[in-house]
Amino acid sequence: MKLEKLIKIHEDNQGCIDTANSDCNTNTRRMKHVEIQLHFIQQAIENSTIALVYTPTNNMLADFLTKSVCRPAIQRALTSLRLLPVGDRRDVKKNILSTHVSREAEEC
């Protein structure tokens, strides 16, 4: 299947990117559980269907769904994803202002 647009997959694990972009299979002896998936990804990269792009962990918006992260990181993600907090949806304007994180907010 040939797509007109290249699909970019943002990844914060440089080892994962290096393994997927590698031509040799020297590491697969230790990674038998991912061998089929690895070959699928390598074929997609070779066919220019996908590209793995390194993205620093701080810029990964979905991390708050799978990892323990600090409050400012959650607020940045919610703001970037344009999601409102579940607790108080009555006043949308109030929610938008409360989830906005100023540039002076403490970094995680």
Automatic annotation (TrEMBL):
Top-level taxon of origin: Eukaryota
Protein's name according to its UniProt entry: Copia protein
Organism for this UniProt entry: Austropuccinia psidii MF-1
Taxon lineage: Eukaryota, Fungi, Dikarya, Basidiomycota, Pucciniomycotina
